[in-house]
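Reopening closed ticket. The problem is back. First fold of the pair:
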Amino acid sequence: MPRQIKYPVRALALVSLISGTALADDAAMLRCRSITDSTARLACYDAIAITPAPPGAPAAAKTVPDQATQQATQRQQFGLENTPQPGAPPVLDAIESSIPGPFEGWRGNARFQLANGQVWQVTDGSSAFENLNNPKVKIRRGALGAFYLEIEGTNRSPRVRRLQ
C-alpha cells in the first residue's frame, strides 16, 4: 500500500495563492508584451497590480546590483573577462590608474603594476625610454580583444595583457 503524505492545509493554500498570483502576473505580462503601440503597452504594464507578499513570507532578495556595484566589479575584472555573455551589462571601454613611482619606460615583456593593484604585461615586443614619475595611465580596449596602455606624457601605446 503506497504511503500517503499529508500537507497542512495552510501550506497548501499559501502555495496555491502564490503560484496563482505568479501565473496571473505572467499572463498579464505576456498580454502587455504583445501590444505594439508603445503608449498602450506602457499603460498595460502600469495597470498590472503588484500584490504584496503574504505576511511571514521572506522578502525577495535584491537580484540586480546597483550601477556603482556593477562598475566597481567591471573595473576589477577589466582585462580578465573572456567574451561578454548575452544579456550581461555593457563592458567598460577603458580604465584609468597610474604607475606609482619612477617610470623609465619598457622593453620586451615588461610588466607594470598599477596603483589599483592590477598587473599588465607588454605583448607587442615594443620598447621605449621615458623618464616620468607617477604617470597617469589609461588602458583601453582595442579591436579583437586587444588592450592598449596609454601613458600620460608619451605618444606610444604598447599592446598589453592583464596578468593579475
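Second fold of the pair, where the issue appears:
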Amino acid sequence: MRGTYSMQSLQAASEVSARTLRHWIRRGLLPRPLGRGRGARYDENHLMRARVVRQLRTERLSLRAVQRRMSGLSEAELRAVLPAPSPQLTVEGLPEPPTAPTYPSVTWETVSLMDGLVLMVNTSRGALLRRVADDIYRHYGIRE
C-alpha cells in the first residue's frame, strides 16, 4: 500500500514509542490501523494525530484533556496545533535563503544626510539620480 507506514516507520516519523502509539489507539486518540497484526498500516492522518497528541502532552495536558481538545477538530485545525516546521539548513548549517519574490521589486540605496534624515535613491533609474544624490550629500550631508 502506497503512502502508508508500518508501526516501526510511524514510530520513527512521530518520535513516539510503539507502545505509546498503541496505547493512544486504545484510548481513541488515534484511529485504528488499516489492517491487523504485522500487516497493519498507518497513514498520514495517524502520523499527524500522533504529532498533535505529542505536542499537547508537551504542554502537560492529560490524555483526557488531549482527547477533549482534539474532539471535533478538523484536520486543518489539528495541524494548526503543531509548531511551524523549523527552516531547512544548508550544508554549512545556515538557513536556506528565502525564495525570490514573485512581485515586482526595486532596489533602493539609502544616503544618510544626518541623524534622522535619509535620502532614498532608486538605483535602477540611472546615473543621473546617483550624481544628484551625491551632490545633495556633498552639500547637505553632515560629516562626523
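Update: turned out to be a display glitch only; the data is intact. The two ends are 72 Å apart (CA to CA). The first strand starts at residue 108 and ends at 114. Please close again.
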